Amino acid sequence: MAERLAIIGGDAAGMSAASQARRRDPELDIVAFERGPYTSYSACGIPYWLGREFEDAGRLIVRSAEKHRERGIDARIGHEVVAIDLDARRLTVVVDGAREVVEPFDRLVIATGAEAVAPPVPGADLVEPARTVDAAQRLDARIARGGHAVVVGAGYIGIEMAEAFVNRGLRVTLIEAAPQVMAGTLDADIARHVQEGAEAEGIDVRVGTPLEEVQHGADGRPCAVVAGGERIPAEHVVVATGVKPSVSLAREAGLEVGATGALVVDEGQRVPGFDGVYAAGDCVESLHRILRQPVNIQLGTHANRQGRVAGVNATGGALAFPGVLGTAVSRICAREVARTGLGEREARDAGLDVAAVCIEATTRARYFPGSGPIWVKLVVERATRRLLGGQIVGTEGAAKRVDVLATAIWTEMTIDDFEDLDLAYAPPVAPVFDPVLQAAGAAVRALD
Amino acid sequence: MAERLAIIGGDAAGMSAASQARRRDPELDIVAFERGPYTSYSACGIPYWLGREFEDAGRLIVRSAEKHRERGIDARIGHEVVAIDLDARRLTVVVDGAREVVEPFDRLVIATGAEAVAPPVPGADLVEPARTVDAAQRLDARIARGGHAVVVGAGYIGIEMAEAFVNRGLRVTLIEAAPQVMAGTLDADIARHVQEGAEAEGIDVRVGTPLEEVQHGADGRPCAVVAGGERIPAEHVVVATGVKPSVSLAREAGLEVGATGALVVDEGQRVPGFDGVYAAGDCVESLHRILRQPVNIQLGTHANRQGRVAGVNATGGALAFPGVLGTAVSRICAREVARTGLGEREARDAGLDVAAVCIEATTRARYFPGSGPIWVKLVVERATRRLLGGQIVGTEGAAKRVDVLATAIWTEMTIDDFEDLDLAYAPPVAPVFDPVLQAAGAAVRALD
């Protein structure tokens, strides 16, 4: 009988592992358990669908369970794994919230992802997170009625949600406990350009405004938030104050949870001490290439890649996950936002002696139609003159420049070498000296 | 009395040198001679102005002679240097095409640029090139009358001009002697996507069609071209079959011209054998960082940077120009086009054993509005697995990804390391695995 690879979690990491394993071993029995109704969906696309930048929510499903089955992966939706027995090599699975079955496995990939964390204030944990397609569909039906929405948390997701609601004609208040938007990803000096963009879309942004309570009406639905000492009535409340790795299932099975709160794995996505057991995606620690420490960053890019590594290694391969810089991008409120490596505050918190500069330039030649502002912030280590991080905010075409910074950081370039780079210029796509090079010049001057 | 720095040529390289020198030495007497009516103009923007993507030709002037004078640079338009006496340290200058004056100098920057080369067929050299703002203004007045235009040469400029004419309502035929468009910059397999884009705009593209003659009417204006055995009547003819470095003035003064036809300089833009003499921009040779040989590539980015180096070194500095990859980008006919490093044909011509792949992907998540096709070609050296070159064609947002390739080539990354890069993803700006990473994966498979 063929060996069996079981996968817990049917999204990016889990199904990437399944696909790689299928490709490499046609004989292997591969089963994937997904508790929700959809596999392989684009969670990153949810706010854009809610904002009706496209009509069909089905487009968010990159590959359905049926499509996976056509390719020889036994993908099962509505299957929630509730216990892992690593000695007996079997899973306890609740099917459709009702009957319980036991499923054996020989090899296992844990890809349980992350879950929303509500602030510890009354009523906040009663608000359903909109992190999955089905939850988004329920939210969508509600916001169709219009009204006033309060979004709690001004990170990527919170601002994207706020923009979506504006697009749908809602009045939107965005509250954030930190004194700036995107405190988890951007430094304050560049984050203010994101806040300006959000305000220009008509979003009432209130930073330094901690949530105190979410009040619910007789129908059980949120009817107001209390924040910063004020009660704000609202037809709709979304809490987007962050996520944490979903590790309780694995922890109960005896797996090690690191200081980041995520599962400990080696560079091959192997779970130390448990032969044939792998973990990948939002639920695991990854090596940060600059800090040389484990971090837990939830990004689809990392999840897909780690899933690949797990799938290859679960079928006899020897692939290594190379670590992360936390490179991320989003388009929010007509501004693009991106970051890679360390922020200035992060670098200082890590005890590094850095210089930081932030310049304003234009996305295209100044005279060219469609040219808009772009802000580039660079963080450079003083002693080594190495580029450690970059943040970009700007209009269309601005943010993917972060990939140039990510490549330079990955290869450990000094800022001096970076400034020498031969990058592309044409009036419709860039000024003669690309904004990232202008920022590098400013950084060199700041160091000298 | 203050020493005098003279500059021949008032565009990117020359005026960058002047600006750097001004900044570094407030006492220096700096004079710049420009034979045309404008300094510091964006030649790259001319086709877009002709196509009326913006109305005001004045926007092409980045900095006028007057503005330069306000900053302490004695910029003189209508001043053509006709002889350089390096022993006596003086220039012979014809002012406004009339009187001749002699101008002394202590230090000299030669930035004479490049000039159009017409094919050696009857009548071709009688067509005025549209390489300067004033020539473009004359062409602009003529095309306002409508009619049929024939553009000779399907390089960047030729296609950009053809697109401009279509935008202005002209009927356009684009003829090219080579069997593909953009033969000087792209390999044939990826260039065909540029040709498709041009044809989709309504341009009649005829490759493998060498020019045989340009016929002129009684008024002295072109009235037809003969090409590929056919006579094509035309109200307007543009010849854009390439340029060569303008070196005759320097050659007559005794400067060395290299095998590329451009002036020989060292890495500090110094002219060997002549103390205090520098050259920069389209008229000089540059070190190609992969070939480790001098090349002559006309790009505004290189010219600006070399001008800076010349200006710094002419004022006692010690800056080095780091060499080039020939990174270039353009937006033509709703497609963006870019290249860096070596093409497949170039690499093979240089005797390198390479593998090349070309993949098709999408600029954004497949489901996201505005997502369009992108083709990425990579050239990798087999023995070292180093990335040597990349070419990109695609819809909006596609081409600046070439900067990631340029950075990787600059830092001598292997394709294996490149595939590991942590690049940014969000549905509005990229698929989960960026097209350049998808291409890298294909290249790794091609090598293995």
Account of the 3D structure:
Two copies of one chain form a homodimer. Chain A is α/β, with parallel strands linked by helices and 448 residues long. Chain A folds into three domains: 4-41 and 62-114 and 244-313, FAD/NAD(P)-binding domain; 124-241, 3-Layer(bba) Sandwich (FAD/NAD(P)-binding domain), CATH 3.50.50.60; 334-447, FAD/NAD(P)-binding domain (3-Layer(bba) Sandwich). Chain A contains twelve helices and 24 strands. Chain A has helices spanning 12-24, 46-50, 65-70, 133-143, 156-167, 188-200, 248-252, 300-313, 344-349, 402-410, 415-419, 435-447; strands spanning 4-8, 29-34, 74-77, 79-85, 90-95, 99-104, 107-110, 114-116, 148-152, 171-175, 204-206, 211-216, 222-227, 230-233, 236-239, 243-245, 277-279, 286-288, 293-295, 328-332, 335-341, 354-362, 373-381, 387-394. In chain A, the strands form seven sheets. Chain A has a five-stranded parallel sheet. Chain A has a five-stranded antiparallel sheet with strand order 20-21-24-23-22, sandwiched between helices. In chain A, strand 13 and strand 14 (230-233) form a beta hairpin. Chain A is globular, with a radius of gyration of 23 Å. The termini of chain A are far apart.
